[in-house]
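Teaching note: in complex prediction, the entire set of molecules is handled at once rather than each chain in isolation. The prompt given to students was simply: 'Predict the structure of this complex.' The entities are:
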Amino acid sequence: MAILMGISDYIIPTVCVLIVMYGLYKEVNVFEVFIEGAAEGLQVAVKILPTLIALLVAVGMLRASGTLDGIVRIVSPLISFTDFPSEVIPIALMRMVSSSASTGLILDIFNTHGPDSFMGRLVSIMFGCTETIFYTMSVYFMAVNIKNTRYTLAGALIASLAGIVASYHLTIAIFT
Amino acid sequence: MLNYLWSFMIIFSIIMAVFGGSMNALTTEMITSSTTAVKICFETCGILAMWMGIMYIAERSGLIDALARRMSPILNFLFPDVPANHPARKYIATNMIANFLGLGWAATPPGLLAMVELQKLNKNKQKATHAMCMFLIINISSIQLISINMVAYRKSYGSLNPTEIVAPSILATLVSTMVAITFAKLMYRKED
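The expected output is the structure of the full assembly:
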């Protein structure tokens, strides 16, 4: 497990160094391009802000009104045969529908439990291996007018479920 | 979609607050969370800008294309129905590499072009081919190297080690992608 933590420390700097070195090798003006990208990145971050406000307020309202707890109480008997924290279920469900709404729910977990809590780590790891299944499928299949998508949905659901289960066990194995 | 989802979240919360008697908490929360959103945006934009700068270098130097060209052996295994020099391959490879690096903006255009090219190989234009199913299932479960957004959010909420989740995240996405490929391959054999 110490190896995994080491990889976590090394990977961002390594990726940066490799990319900058490749850029120099290809005679790209790396500094100028970096500035250009960073400017674009700032714009992206600011463009996300209205969405973030809309969804954090909505999720905050769900939490404060007790609705979120209600949903958790309804789903928790369904997964009571496992130790999987039921607060995470709404995030997994929401993630299939909307990326930004699920981000709102994840930030809510960070807010109530902290990013370094078991649940905070679990949702952090889970986030990468689930996708907005319905959105992605409709965009890609609609582009070519496919009506019969066959086993795509089943495959995407099974893969996401596997990712969630893997995240859960990894979180336990590494952090507890 | 968000139209209904967002309206539902707000309206339902207010109804619940009326019955639960938590209107005061609700009002406070609305004001607090809008302020929090601005705070998070400010605290994450530095990390996101830094990462986007690096990724621009990757794109401009042709690194994404160079990696995509080395994908042939993997593509042979995943998409045996797509001929070796077919343009669909290039688009699929570019989409996969961009997703791997976490570049959504660079992944979608070649992804859609890949679907158009795969559709040209399709005999029944209404029904998805095996290659399309494989491509989308992998796309949805894609292996991701670093989800920088999550690192930035964790930092913003005071994590002592925001990047500690990077390696476990790669492992988790690796598992979901492996399951995706296995499932799609099994269905491929079963349905033919």
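Point out the following to students. The mean pLDDT of chain B is 93. The radius of gyration of chain B is 22 Å.
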